[in-house]
Amino acid sequence: MIARNWLMLGVAATALSVSGLAAPAVAQEMRDMAAPEASVEAPADAPAPADGEIVVLGFGQTRQVQTVTAADMERLTPGTSPLKAVAKLPGVNFQSADAFGAYEWSTRISLRGFNQNQLGFTLDGVPLGDMSYGNVNGLHISRAAISENLAATTVAQGAGALGTASTSNLGGTLQFTSRAPSDTADLVASGTYGSNDTIRAFVRAESGDIGGGLKGYLSYGFLTTDKWKGYGVQRQHQVNAKLVQDFGERGSITGFVNFSDRRENDYQDLSLDIIARRGLRADNISNDYALAARIGKIYQNNAAIAAYQAANGGATTGFTPPWAGVGYTYPAGFGSVDDAYYDAAGVRRDWLGGVTFDAKLTDALALVSTSYYHHNKGQGSWVTPYVGTPAGVPDGSGGTIGAASPPLLPHHRVRHRPRRQPDAPDAGDRRQPAGAGRLVREQRLHPSAPLLRHGRWHHAQSQRP
């Protein structure tokens, strides 16, 4: 199996905070200096005037900061990405191809024109990278935590604070905070059923304070839903566990372990030209193998005749196509071989764990340190007709393919994937150069062969500050 393994160990930046440095807000006393003759007698039933004191409150923020609370999340469909919840804030733009906003390949978020590659994301002080698809320095928030376990999402627009554990917070930060365990034992459960065979379940067991300030919770979330167009399923299992030892005024120690196992079938990317030809509900054709095989054969015929003409001064006399009977014209609505693929999908399995020490050393000095570990194993696959199916692979009927698909000439082995992220040029194409740490394998269709996966793997081990 072609897979990708990411191992990440790190220690979040230690934060020292000193209280008492900020002066309290100054209350300004306003006195009525008007002349007596200019005063107007108030009605007898008017309320008594205030003492004239105006209090100005300061929160120590030098930038615009807004927070979406757990109560705001509860108004959305259970399982909705917290990124979708912050879309209501001014200056925030969020887009996704699915209703939950959790389909990573299509997810886009921007703050005042800064795209997500220029934003910083953290969960309880743990860096999540820029949350672009396949990033090697973090993971998506929809896999890092169950949405019901988030207490708040804080959005800081403008340059991020220096204390944020991120290297991409030029345009702002989104800081996710998980909920603290309850002081009382509790059991919370919810279930959702909807269109497209959507089933969502969530349960959380709270231990309550079992003595000496020790408390925790264990929760599980499950989601399965069919794609709203095309064929395929989005499925996810998640487990979140958190344990807190509260020492009162001296501080606390918090440990957490989060697990996610996600499988999603892709939606095909659409250009304006594809929409004009195939409509808004166009998608991959995983329900029609015969059509996928036909498109692959037509592609190979076109590539073969182009190579023949190049070698024979443009002449086609004597040319025999590799696939007779299918011609050279794509089916109605298809302008190229990349208009739709037979199938595309991604799988991700993540473990995220960490320990946070919050110590109040003195009345004016506190120390907060977070150590964490992240392990990710995943694969993104899509089936294209570029490379011929080799002999010996399973034929889908219990046997194997005896003859390989006819090969194309080398200069016609197109390596092109029209999946672009306009706001993320570095990650705009899943098929990155080998120097970027990915191996690319392409394959074409065989008329009687099962469609193999187009896969790549990546292995990286790094430490994050």
From TrEMBL:
Coiled-coil ranges from the UniProt annotation: none
Annotated signal sequence range: 1-27
UniProt-listed Gene3D superfamilies: TonB-dependent receptor, plug domain
Residue intervals of the TonB-dependent receptor plug domain: 62-161
Pfam hit, one: Plug
Segments of skewed composition (Basic and acidic residues): 420-432
Domain of life: Bacteria
Comp. bias intervals (Basic residues): 410-419, 453-465
Keywords: Ion transport, Iron, Iron transport, Receptor, Signal, Transport
Region (Disordered): 393-465
PANTHER family attached to this UniProt entry: CATECHOLATE SIDEROPHORE RECEPTOR FIU, FERRICHROME IRON RECEPTOR-RELATED
Identification of the protein by name: TonB-dependent receptor
Source species of the chain: Sphingomonas aurea
